[in-house]
Amino acid sequence: MNAIRVKLKNNMFLTLVITTYIVLGILMPSKAIQSLNNSLYYIKEMLIIMPVILILTSLIEAWVPKKSIEKALGEDSGFKGSVFSFLLGSFSAGPIYAAFPVCKMLLKKGASVSNIVVMLSTWAVIKIPMLVNEAKFLGPKFMAIRWVLTTISIFIMAYITSRLVKKEDIQMDDILTNEEELMLNINEQYCIGCGLCTKISSETFVMENKKAKIIIEISKLEENENIKTAIDKCPAKAIGYKK
Amino acid sequence: MDIFTIILWIITGTWFIWSIIKDKKRTLNSIKMSGGMMKNMIGEIIGILFLIGLILTFIPPDTIKRYMGQSNTLISTIVSAFIGSITLIPAFVAFPLVGSLVNAGANIVPVVAFLTTLTMVGIVTFPLEKREFGLRFTTARNSLSFIFAIIIALLMGAVM
User: Fold this and answer.
1) What ipTM goes with this model?
2) What is the model's pTM?
């Protein structure tokens, strides 16, 4: 029962929408069916795009070094970086929410706030198939002028946003860091020297000058049952992982 | 599937196969990690998509068209920009819709405001964006986009 409640709480928005559908289904069944049919197109679009976004985000995490992203899209990438973000956004595919995980990963890897705004906005607004469509229905002149004005606006917006929002304002904790990069660590200030961890996992911890010490460097990937228990049981909560 | 989605699939697929061959453990480990991030988003995305269906039922394209064609340009521009912000209509529906309106002689200022906010401002995707980039970033980006959409519309009206 409790588990269900937690699930509902975590998905409050989805629950709210589903409830609306149920109420609508009782009161106006035809409207509910119409809404479901409307949503179908978007669901299909999501199923086509999200798996590839998931893989792409993972591959960026695994293979693109932080240094190269910092250089290409970071604070000091200048005008070149903005143009690069603009091109990346223009040649992307999918709706704006597909851009969120990719941009977040790039941000974590060192891209600047202004470049992320450029990429998010171009990803949403400027797409080649859309431009073709616009020229067809509203004329090439209409399309070209709107494109120029939008492009200029995006660069100005990126500049203003980077003045208003600092990178520290954006939470990064929810992206788990690669487990290889997280190292087992003891906070010496918290450690009360009880020696419990050395008893639970003597192959990892040792006492030195009344403080616990880690014998060999251990990453999160190599965590074993004994280490887990030691982290749990430590009365001062001094053991954890750190980058 | 449009050509860009297909290209994205091909590039990512090739990279993925290379990655698996080069280092299987590292690849799977990263996928597990990104999967964790996506798992948090997916419930919200599905909610948003069903919400869009609801919005389209109650604010159908024909109603939108009526608002955009109103005689008072200022009011219709702001209303159109606002409608564009809350809806997410695919391009192949939006362009013919406003195209017919412009061909019938409607003022283009509200039309441009609608087209621009449609893609650049996302009120329904706001919670999702906020979760990923924080309140400050999301508010700044969306409100700036709204303001610039109106500026673009007014400039378009003056130029064309």
Assistant:
1) 0.85
2) 0.75
